[in-house]
Amino acid sequence: TSVAMDGEALAGMVRSIAEHRDQTAFVRLFEHFGPRIKGFLMRQGASDSEADDLAQDVMLTVWRKAGQFDPVKAAASTWIFTIARNRRIDVLRRERRPEPDANDPLLVGEPEPCAETQMSTAQIQVRIREAMATLPPEQVEVLTLSFFEDISHSDIADRLGIPLGTVKSRLRLAFRKVKALVGDEFA
Amino acid sequence: MTVKHHPSEALLLAYAAGHLGEGLSLLMATHLTYCPDCRAAVAEAEAVGGAVMEESAPVVMRDGALDALLGRLDAPAPEARRPAPPSVTRRRPASSPARAVQGGIALPAPLKSYVSDLAGARWQWVGPGVRQLDLMQRPRGRDTARMLRIAPGRVLPHHGHEGLELTVVLQGSFTDEQGRFTAGDLAEIDRDGSHQPIADSGEDCICIIGTDAPLRFSGWVPRMMAPMMGF
Ligand SMILES: [Zn+2]
Ligand SMILES: [Zn+2]
């Protein structure tokens, strides 16, 4: 599908930056992601100018760290989402975000994935979007609110006027449906 | 290590979305070190996040943003900022060995930048058989994180929760109303829950506890303990 092509094309642009310092590819990535990162951050509560500054920082990080992008592990949009998330925590909350370390000797490894059945991460991204399109609206609402609003699930419950348990069960259902439709690619 | 107790989908999503504070994120990162299943679930939630960002309504960048950015591309990257070394690991003088704990355990990487030397750490007495180590000396948010060392058979005060409380066991085990938790397990209790954990194996139970709001103690003894524990 064309969306899958988009995903592959976006990943290709990041690779091209990593390998050739390709400014043309960077401009195309900026035109695609810059305004989306900005819109996403504004819906998370950043002001227009904060979101603009942060989106520029994120794109600068994309340029500098393009060599760390691994298309086998994540789609370009997923990788850029995690950069935006971490930058926002760093700048707006001034907190650290502890993460597991892939080189930690204590890290418990996952079983080797079966190479034949693996979809590309770009294909997985398409499946995830398709899966989200089939979810009931109330599940999409809590799933989307969970990303956009920097509020706890208790606050989401209060805002929607539903019990906390209902928020959690809607998220659980949404997650399981996405997982069922995407397959075991993440397991 | 067989991990039996995992965070809820809601919690995995909150971590992936970046909405957890530093203390709760530290608890999640510790569990994720021991749990490939939950790492896969976080990766999946991040992919959902990528899709949500991809589909959010674009907002036009300010005039000249691209040119300004292109002008910065070849500037040298700033030095990565390293957090200040944690102060909880200062060794006590040899004359006061009472609070030194023998036999450190191997710490997962996320914890190491909060407490680098367990054996030399300044454990704080909080009650009979219970010692703690504050992991967040200079918190910026409202989260707390502490390591607890609980002697076999000891019971923690019964308490309720104003917000989320996460516990990850590093050594030994404890049991509460939700079940039995051993190394790698994550216990999740939200604002509606209350419980009374008891350390129930032959060795000290070493665990980390993170909260995003103060705990509520019931009964007069626990209320006396609350200020000592800094809750
Ligand atoms: Zn888990
Ligand atoms: Zn508790």
TrEMBL record, chain B:
User: Which portions of the sequence form the region Disordered?
Assistant: 72-101
* InterPro entries assigned: Anti-sigma_ChrR (IPR012807), Anti_sigma_zinc_sf (IPR041916), ChrR-like_cupin_dom (IPR025979), RmlC-like_jellyroll (IPR014710), RmlC_Cupin_sf (IPR011051)
ChrR-like cupin domain location: 115-210
For this protein, the record's Gene3D superfamilies field holds: Anti-sigma factor, zinc-finger domain, Jelly Rolls
What name goes with this protein? Answer: ChrR-like cupin domain-containing protein
- Judging by the UniProt lineage, the source's domain of life is Bacteria
Record the organism: Roseospira navarrensis
Q: Where is the signal peptide?
A: none
